[in-house]
Amino acid sequence: MKIAVCVKYVPDSSGPRTFSSDLTVDRSGDGMLSELDEYAVEEALRIRDEAGDVEVVIVTVGPDDARAAITRALQMGADAGVHVVDDAIHGSDSVGTSLVLAKVLQQQAADIVLCGMASTDGSMGVVPAMLAERLGLPQVTLASEVTIDGATVRVRRDGDSAVEVVEASMPLVLSVTDQCNEPRYPSFKAIMAAKKKPVSTLGLADLAISPDEVGLRAAWTRVVSYEERPARTAGQIVTDEGGSGADQLVEFLSARRLI
Amino acid sequence: MSEVLVLVDHIDGTVRSTTAELLTFARRLGEPAAVLLGSNSGAARETLRSYGADKIYVAENSQYDDFLVVPKAEALAHLVAAASPAAVLIASGGEGKEIAGRLAIKTGSGLITDAVDVQISDGELVTTQPVFAGDVTVRSIITRGVPIVTLKPNSVTPETQPGAGVEVALEVSLSQQATTARVSERRPRETTGRPELTEAAIVVAGGRGTGGDFAALEAFADSLGAAVGASRAVVDAGWYPHSLQIGQTGKTVSPQLYVAAGISGAIQHRAGMQTSKTIVAVNKDPESPIFEAVDFGVVGNLHDVLARAAELINARRS
Ligand SMILES: Cc1cc2nc3c(=O)[nH]c(=O)nc-3n(C[C@H](O)[C@H](O)[C@H](O)COP(=O)(O)OP(=O)(O)OC[C@H]3O[C@@H](n4cnc5c(N)ncnc54)[C@H](O)[C@@H]3O)c2cc1C
Ligand SMILES: Nc1ncnc2c1ncn2[C@@H]1O[C@H](COP(=O)(O)O)[C@@H](O)[C@H]1O
């Protein structure tokens, strides 16, 4: 069996995040493997641990630095990586990104395409569904629990108003939430072993994609302006002493007409 | 004026309030046309009319319930081709965004997710949405196809205004692809007896600082008629179900009042509540980062503070 895991390299969410002058996400600062994609890598490794003969390939679309996301996934235990990097991809929205990923995944012909639930920078959560649409594969997405039963994948999906059990046959697109597992930390041995694992680099030409199908100008939406949320004016902080905190809290709520 | 398609979110005919919000937005953009898919939708029609649906496309077909996402996306794609709408509005949420994503690819249309506002400005449809955990607000336009927008709950106050609600039977021949991911089981969430988290005007959330004891917090929430939510630490500990988690990987809420009790205010938590109108925190640590995000904070033991506040509020009421 072959599992292709799509992972994204994102700006570190603990630092300040902003836009560049062309109104795309500023990716100049430190980046990392999207935390939510670690769950996808972990799930692939668990499937391999259980089923044995499984190859786990990491796929990422992103700038040169995005190689770091692949490295991290290889350190966790994945077998190989594919890095799609091309200047023309800069500024792609989920439509462009899913187009590029779909072409790579067609070449990979994996039994399971595994994604995270959303990228921590854009957080649209639409790429997995778009991939299923483009590839004509079943989608079993937002899984909080995954069971593999022969060629059938069965998942628990915590929907908005119900808990659902969804199943489909491979090949398919699967996405997992942070409820699914606990991602492993790479051991020193695994970090050393990762250095020898193969990573191939592809450009748009290798995928027969024309530069004007992707990137900022090909995007189907455009940011016209952005605004930092005005800092909250410093709130009033009181210290509770023998019930005074509750009294003042109720006063505050009443003054704001919230009770 | 063109139609504006609104995908109805209903469970056996009970319409979620997000749909009423979408109809309210749709009236600004054109003629609201509700798209009502799935079984037992009879009771929904009156509600849709009362919020201004001029037209109601109806497909009473259990395939919309039995298979994930794709049948709904195909029905909408069919309508986009047939009715050339001015826009398609869908409620943000796991399923809503996936339907929107597929529809965007199917119809070659631009997609904006998690908007909090949509307007016509200088003849162009402009959306507003928070990004980067709510730190930044972005305005966008859609440059290709039929604008597809998913809107977050609690973005607008639903306004009733009777619409004609003319019913139009919808016949879509679903593709084979539509029936590949089967929903083999569906267990509706147990209702808590409290307001729905994403729709509530007031949310009271507890964190690890509760120590798993929610008595005072729930009493306080009930005195305010509030929904109860939780941080991920609480969900990971198994104290509350994941459906009540607020934050990046849980629900996003934007109530009139948000009360965080025993929550430290991690960025992933703030991502789910930062756009609340008024924010209050109770935390025993005066250095806790949550206090940077509040309008009012109490440094103290949450059990004492909330229990007493609940008593005071109940006393005022009686
Ligand atoms: C990929 C990813 C996604 C995540 N998604 C989410 C998410 O969706 N939602 C979310 O909430 N978190 C999320 N997290 C986790 C987040 O980073 C924090 O770990 C979590 O929010 C902490 O929960 P907490 O504030 O309840 O606990 P803590 O950080 O442990 O804070 C507990 C607080 O309680 C206070 N306290 C203790 N006792 C009392 C008392 N008796 N009275 C008053 N105060 C008291 C303490 O001073 C402390 O500030 C995510 C993390 C990752 C990596
Ligand atoms: N540039 C990318 N390269 C590889 N995978 C991606 C990329 N962007 C998104 N994904 C995958 O799609 C999922 C959802 O992303 P998004 O729709 O951007 O929130 C992520 O968790 C990844 O698995």
Task: Briefly summarize what is shown.
Chain A is an alpha/beta fold and about 260 residues long. Chain A has helices spanning about 35-50, 65-75, 95-110, 125-135, 190-195, 245-255; strands at about 1-5, 10, 30-35, 55-60, 80-85, 110-115, 140-150, 150-160, 160-170, 170-175, 200, 220-230, 235-240.
SSE layout and pairing:
The complex is a heterodimer of chains A (259) and B (318).
Chain A: E1 2-6, E2 9-11, E3 31-33, H1 35-51, E4 55-61, H2 67-76, E5 80-84, H3 94-108, E6 112-116, H4 127-135, E7 139-149, E8 152-158, E9 162-169, E10 172-176, H5 188-194, E11 199-202, E12 221-228, E13 236-239, H6 244-255
Parallel strand pairs in A: 1-4, 1-6, 4-5, 5-11, 6-10, 7-10
Antiparallel strand pairs in A: 2-3, 7-8, 8-9
Helix pairs in contact in A: 2-5, 3-4
Chain B: E1 3-7, E2 10-11, E3 14-15, H1 17-29, E4 31-37, H2 44-50, E5 55-59, H3 63-66, H4 70-83, E6 87-91, H5 94-107, E7 111-115, E8 117-121, E9 124-131, E10 136-142, E11 148-151, E12 166-169, E13 182-188, E14 202-206, H6 215-224, E15 227-230, H7 232-236, E16 257-261, H8 267-270, E17 278-283, E18 296-299, H9 302-317
Parallel strand pairs in B: 1-4, 1-6, 4-5, 5-12, 6-11, 7-11, 14-15, 14-16, 16-17, 17-18
Antiparallel strand pairs in B: 2-3, 8-9, 9-10
Helix pairs in contact in B: 4-5, 6-9
Bound molecules: flavin-adenine dinucleotide and adenosine monophosphate (AMP).
Q: What would you note in describing this structure?
A:
The complex is a heterodimer of chains A (259) and B (318). In chain A, 27% of the residues lie in helices and 29% in strands. In chain A, the strands form two sheets. In chain A, strands 9-8-7-10-6-1-4-5-11 form a nine-stranded mixed beta sheet, with helices on both faces. A two-stranded antiparallel ribbon of chain A has the order 2-3. In chain A, α2 links the parallel β4 and β5. In chain A, α2 crosses α5. Chain A is globular. The model of chain A has no long low-confidence stretch (mean pLDDT 93). With 318 residues, chain B is an alpha/beta fold. Chains A and B meet through α3, α4, β7, β8 and β9 of A and α5, β7, β9, β10 and β13 of B.
